[in-house]
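U., I forgot to send this yesterday:
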Amino acid sequence: MTNTRYIGQVVSHQTTDRLSARIGYKVVGVWTGSEDGVMKVVPPHFSENSFDLSADSKCSGHKDYASCSCGFYAYSTVESTISHWRNECGGFANLAIVQVALSGDVVVAENGYRASHQRIKRILMPHCWNCSAAGVRFVYHESKFLVAGCEACSANVNSISFADFATQHSPTGFNPVEVLSAADIGAEALNFLAPESHSEKAIEAITQLATMGRLDLINDIINHGNTKLNESLGL
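Result:
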């Protein structure tokens, strides 16, 4: 849960139907201290609570979900979440920025959403806890929170690769959780957490050019994309 004052006031008292999921972003800690040994996420402002990577909220039995405060809170933009991580949470190494799928009863607020179900889709860790390099492994910290570590710094400590974490701890029945680390979260978070937004903008631009009849510019965009792809593949 993220404190309601960060998400803002409800802008619509209509909950969405259960087929209308939303994508949100929030700050959590990845915690290893549960008695059952299952990886959990812990909200920074409610550290006494912990949740599975796919979880339902426990509503207190209110008749109108839109008017109560139960559920999982998340921002609607990566930028708001980065600001929260830095300014409200201190930008600590044991706190991740995550992309979440929100479903069930979803309420729209000024800066984000509140939902009855939350599933972690992507986890973006800060850089290595011991240096400025991007991490490639989760390190088991004595605080029972996972931190990111580069290959060199995690060589002689208890750790697990991001890939192994995803294989072992992703919610059953869904795509594996993507785990990444950024040397600079501020510069890289949008690319890592919301890559779909770039394709949406590109499609929108191409659509506008098509309505203007500018097939020449569309062709330039396609050629440029092919050139960059070939360069990245070494062709």
